[in-house]
Every structure is written in structure tokens, then in C-alpha cells.
Amino acid sequence: MLKEYSISDIFPELPEQILLYVCPFEKTDQSRLVWPHKCNFYSIIWFTSGHGFNVVDLAEHEILSNRLFLTSPQQIHNWTYHRNVEGYMLVFDKVVAAQLGIDFSSPYVDVSIDNIPLLEMVIKNILCKKPDADIEIDLLYFYSLIAGQINDGNFDPGGVNTLFREFKDLVFTNNLEIHSMDQYADTLQISLASLNEICRNFSGSSAKQFLLHLKIAEAKRLLIYSRLNISDIAYRLAFEDASYFARIFKKKTGITPSCFSGKYRK
């Protein structure tokens, strides 16, 4: 059986409650790891220099400068690289990925030249913060810069990731108007138990809780990047009313929608 690592296994010096961490890749101790292996978290590895190969679920991909490798939980991965590689490593828990609406459908992304300065700015801003600082918004912005370059057709481990993405697509295609988990499962032609298992594997939560995570992630995006008011956002995301939306949002994020908007909206 393959060894499975957690964030605390990779970075034993960090507090166990850390769900999101960023560091220079060359400062990670890769020699302690058993290869190949699995991880129970998401990772983005940005190689700024160096050469070699990255193997994800038995598919080999060349390591090139300014290529970002995207790995989801439970994927088998391996490295073959020279010692002169440099770059950055972003790791985050399933809960963080679910809350921010992050999902990988490709093994890598080649960074466009125009995006490099912005990506570097985000990384350097994160590295200036303490390990326990709130950097979710930085990660969300970083991901938004590369999301448009991810080609859904390049990578699909065993079809399970496809069902997970189809569930997400179905949620937003129907404008979050479907409330029955059985209805989602029937549309995907799988059992509710299978839908819950898929969601737990990729997000760490049940289908119902993942749906709520998606709503909160979308609410964060709308609060930051749109000019909709709180009532409009509550209506768009199919909450009962603005006050109920505000209570749920604060419960999940620790801050009210209005405070969140005032803190992060540009």
C-alpha cells in the first residue's frame, strides 16, 4: 500500500491545525518522503527553474520553467528532477479547496508571461506573512490567475474527478436552485451514497456540506468582485433571505458578509 502524507507530515515544524501553507520549493525536505506516494491535500508546485519529470497517476510530464503542477488528494505522484530546481510550493487542505471552489482538472499549467509578475507578487506577499496568517484570499487570487489556462480535457484520474466536476457544474448550471441531494445524484446517474463518497474524497465533506461550501465560496467571489448587495447575493445563491445568509456566512467564515466586503473589496 502506498504511503499517504498529510500537510503536517510534509512540514512537521508547522502547527497541526495549519490548513494552508506556502514556501520555497527548495526548502522542503523531499529526501524524507517515500516515493511514489499519495497526499490527502491539494498542492500547486511552481517551478521557476530546473528540469526533470513529474509522474502523476503513471503519466509522465516534463518539468519546465514556469510550469505549475496541480495535484489533488489521493493521486499517485513521483518526481525525477535535478538538484538545481527552484520554485514555490502551495499546499492546502480539502476544506480550504472546497471553501474557495478550487478544483484541478489538469496535471499542470504553463504560466503565461503576462501573469508571472502578478503570481510572483502574490507569492511574495504570502511569504511575508506568518504561517498562521489568513492567506485564503491570496490563494484565491493566485488560483484565479491560472484557472482560465486549465484544460479540462488533459487529465481525468479514473473518471471520478469527472463526476466531481460534473456535480459542481450541475450546481452552478442550475443556479443553485436544486436543493435535493437525491435529485443531484439522479441527474448524475449515481447513488446518493456514491455522490457523498466522491465529495468526501475530493472535498472532505458530504455532498450537502460541499454544496454549502460552494455557496460560501461563490458568495466570497461576488462580495469581492461584483457590485451586488447582500440581499441580491442571498437571492442569487438560493438562501432563504439575507439575514439567514448572513448568519450562515458568519458561521462558516467568522465574519459577516458586510465586514468581509469592506475588508477585501477593491
Please characterize this protein's 3D structure:
- Helix 2 (94-100) packs across helix 8 (207-225), helix 5 (160-173) packs across helix 7 and helix 9 (230-236) packs across helix 10.
- It is globular and about 55 Å long.
- The chain is an alpha+beta fold.
- It starts with a strand and ends with a helix.
- The chain has 11 helices and 10 strands.
- The chain folds into 2 domains: 4-154, Jelly Rolls (Sandwich), CATH 2.60.120.280; 160-264, Arc Repressor Mutant, subunit A, CATH 1.10.10.60.
- The chain has helices at residues 7-10, 94-100, 116-127, 136-147, 160-173, 181-188, 192-203, 207-225, 230-236, 242-253, 257-264; strands at residues 4-5, 20-24, 38-39, 42-49, 52-56, 59-63, 67-71, 77-81, 86-92, 108-110.
- The strands form 3 sheets. It has a 5-stranded antiparallel β-sheet with strand order 2-9-4-7-10. Strands 6-5-8 form a 3-stranded antiparallel β-sheet, with no helix packed on it. It has a two-stranded parallel ribbon with strand order 1-3.
Reported by name, the CATH topology of the largest domain is Jelly Rolls
The oligomeric status of these chains comes to single chain
Please report the number of helical segments.
Answer: 11
The dominant shape is: globular
Task: Give the name of the CATH architecture of the largest domain.
Answer: Sandwich
SSE topology string: EHEEEEEEEEHEHHHHHHHHH
Largest sheet report: 5 strands, antiparallel
- Average pLDDT works out at 84
**Cα-based radius of gyration, to the nearest Å:** 19 Å
CATH homologous superfamily heading of the largest domain? Regulatory protein AraC
Helix content: 40-55%
The amount of beta strand, in percent, is: 15-25%
**Structural class from helices and strands?**
alpha+beta
Strand order, main sheet: write it out. 2-9-4-7-10
Q: What separation lies between the terminal Cα atoms?
A: 48 Å
Point out poorly predicted stretches.
Answer: 151-159
Number of domains: 2
Regarding CATH, which class of the largest domain? Mainly Beta
User: Number of DSSP strands?
Assistant: 10
